Amino acid sequence: ELPPINGDFYELHMKLTEEQRAIQLQVREFMEKEAKPLVNRYWLTDDFPHELIPKFKKLNLCGVTYEGYGCPNLPFLMEGVIAMEIARVDASLATFFGVQSGLSMGSIYMCGSEEQKQKYLPGMQQFDLIGAFGLTEPEVGSGAAGGLTTTCKKVDGGWILNGQKKWIGNATFADVIIIWARDLDDNQVKGFIVEKDTPGFEVEKIKGKMALRIVQNGLITMKDCFVADSQKMEHANSFKDTAKVLQMTRAGVAWMATGCARGAYESALEYTRKRKQFGKPIASFQLVQGHLVEMLSNLTAMQTLVFRLSEMQDADILKDEHASLAKVFCSLRTRDVVAQAREVMGGNGILLEHDVARFVADAEAIYSYEGTKEINSLIVGRSITGMSAFV
Ligand code: FAD
């Protein structure tokens, strides 16, 4: 009798209440039963499994931490645990959920007026409205804080938006798209809620991605796109407001990376216990066990870190640098874990049907989005040295 496969080696789930643990297991069951049978097929065809949306809706966990508007009002710890559980099976679906629940709903929740929250959040919570978040541009990624070229200009009754946004997750089928643009009058970054059929607003699917292929990323073009005053987010008046949203979502990405590593480790462990060479399971070889233990060490360090990260979020003491450190550490370690998982699976490690190949590819996108290693390191560096090395 072999021991159970368990990527939670230090039993961190014991930090959860009974109710929270039940939610974790509910998400795990949903992902295993409903999502897992679909993901490789959709990954291959570069499509989104729309049939999962009503099932996500049934889970009723979207807008995890928000109060009101039909949201569950759970602690940040649960936002992390949910992200980890989704990513443990598929990082694309975790990204889809993160864009909906975190980036787009979070922008409205943190920066919108009460009227805007009432108008959009209940529908988004139910996935009746799909959200997207447009910050990055074709020529401006890491330098978004000072370098946005998308502009907004105040006119009678509203604003005119011009520019492009690249990589925007969910954008090809989103109903509500958050757009960050620089005000031509005061040079500050402002945030807008743009509805999909607004004249002058177009989305083109980005094709040919080799990572997170299930998430649909769009290139948005805005040409003299008019939005009414009611669509300008009341409290989104400088990049500091954008950064508040990013702090929350970066913490979520650290959890997502951890989930991806956990999925890869567990798949690899299972495989090595079954696969035989030289008449013995390869898991019985010392060098293979060395890989497995190294993976588990990284995974355990990541999990311990993100549990503490969320405790800090729940205690309202989390700063940008804490979220950035976790994002850097977890996305870096995940790259190592998935690479070792692939390695111990030999040739089968590059076959989609064994899942780990998908984790290897997806880890590359997680590594780069929501701030690259360099940008998040510079945020931590500025905090510990008191010196900014950005420019
Ligand atoms: P660049 O900024 O061009 O960076 C290239 C390299 O230069 C990196 O290694 C970077 O670290 C390095 N570099 C840049 N500046 C410095 C510096 N000062 N010092 C040292 N090194 C530096 N954006 C959204 O707005 N919404 C989304 O929904 C979204 N989803 C995404 C999904 C995917 C799959 C991907 C890949 C990206 C997504 N993004 C999204 C964009 C993402 O946030 C950017 O790709 C990321 O911020 C990096 O920007 P960039 O790709 O333009 O790289």
Automatic annotation (TrEMBL):
Residues 242-384 form the Acyl-CoA dehydrogenase/oxidase C-terminal domain. Residues 17-125 form the Acyl-CoA dehydrogenase/oxidase N-terminal domain. Its cofactor is FAD. Signal peptide: none annotated. The keyword Oxidoreductase applies. Keywords: FAD, Flavoprotein, Oxidoreductase. It comes from the Bacteria. The keyword Phosphoprotein does not apply. Residues 132-225 form the Acyl-CoA oxidase/dehydrogenase middle domain. Pfam families: Acyl-CoA_dh_1, Acyl-CoA_dh_M, Acyl-CoA_dh_N. InterPro entries: ACX4-like, Acyl-CoA_DH_CS, Acyl-CoA_Oxase/DH_mid-dom, Acyl-CoA_Oxase/DH_mid-dom_sf, AcylCo_DH-like_C, AcylCo_DH/oxidase_C, AcylCoA_DH/ox_N, AcylCoA_DH/ox_N_sf. GO terms for molecular function: acyl-CoA dehydrogenase activity; flavin adenine dinucleotide binding. GO terms for biological process: fatty acid beta-oxidation. Belongs to the acyl-CoA dehydrogenase family. This is Glutaryl-CoA dehydrogenase.
